[in-house]
Amino acid sequence: MAAAALLAHPILEKGSMRPSKSRFLAMQATHPSIYDQLPAIVKRYQLPNNRKATIQILNSFLPFIALWVAMYVWRDVSIWLTIGLAIVNAFFLVRIFIIQHDCGHQSFTASRRANNLIGSTCSFLTFIPYRYWAKNHNYHHGHNGILSDHRDIGDINTLTVNEYSALSRFQKFKYRLFRSAPVLFIIGPLVYIFFNNRFPLVRMKGWELANRALLWNDFFLIVFHGALIYFLGWEAFTLVHFPIITAFGVIAIWFFYVQHQHEYTYKAWKSKWDYLTASIQGSSYYKLPRFFHWLSGNIGYHHIHHLNSLVPNYELARCHHENPIFEQVAVSLTFRQSLQCIFNKLWDEDKGKMIGWREYARMQKKEMAGI
Q1: How many domains is the chain built from?
Q2: Domain that holds residue 127
Q3: pTM above 0.85, yes or no
Q4: What is the pLDDT of residues 293-327, one digit of tens each?
């Protein structure tokens, strides 16, 4: 009865695609019991399935290897054909990375040993160190949206309006450069893969084992890809794997960006932070065609994933669609709407939303005019 009442609530009218903060707050205020039941709903899908996991390994690795070989064989035929195949194959590398991602959450299979073996194997192709990245990513899950000194661990650094205003001119320039589209989505992915995930940059207590695992991963990457280069030549990396990695990085960073940098996301200081709000409001539902959900390992159902990271990626879509409540409370974004996220640069604490440079400039003019 409570769920039916919620679905009939006028503020939560079905079909609204605007990522509205008021809809979510209305749900919390008028039906807190439903809000509190969301974790229990999701927990029912916390079901590792070895058959589904095996199928996903096969339909991810086999096409990836086939396209990789095709790129190598046809590398001298046409550079444009090679680039086109690299973009296609990057999506299969995204699927492989999602397998690694789930293994890091210990959700892909019921066996911890199998998860660690599969996840480590994936890392040789994705160039994302398994244990080190999983440590950072799990930190992100426990701190998503918290405005703390370590908010950039496993996340894209975002300043508040007040924090940005307090910066020096040079620091503002660096932040603007960092948040620019060319840096975030083209240069940034390569820096993230080949620098941020190659050196143990996080020196916090509890990262000692993860940092050592990162260095071992670097060693085995050199051995693995060194062997490929020795037997197949430098072109195996420069004309085949590197273009795939580049396209993969762009796709991965874009997905992560729109999942947490939408206009009405959620950010709060630690004393006021709420995990459920951060999961639902602070994590978007990327409403894509079914085929693209498959290509991206269903990570577009990010609100479900943040409610419970132990739900395997192959159960996320079923969880969302079998429970209509998520169509009402999720912050839904179509691809066209997600493009607007590019202009989100700062978190405005007063308005409770992300704003761009133009809006920030207008605010500054009003402040200087004493309005």
Answers
A1: 1
A2: 2-156+183-344
A3: yes
A4: 999 999 999 999 999 999 999 999 999 999 999 98
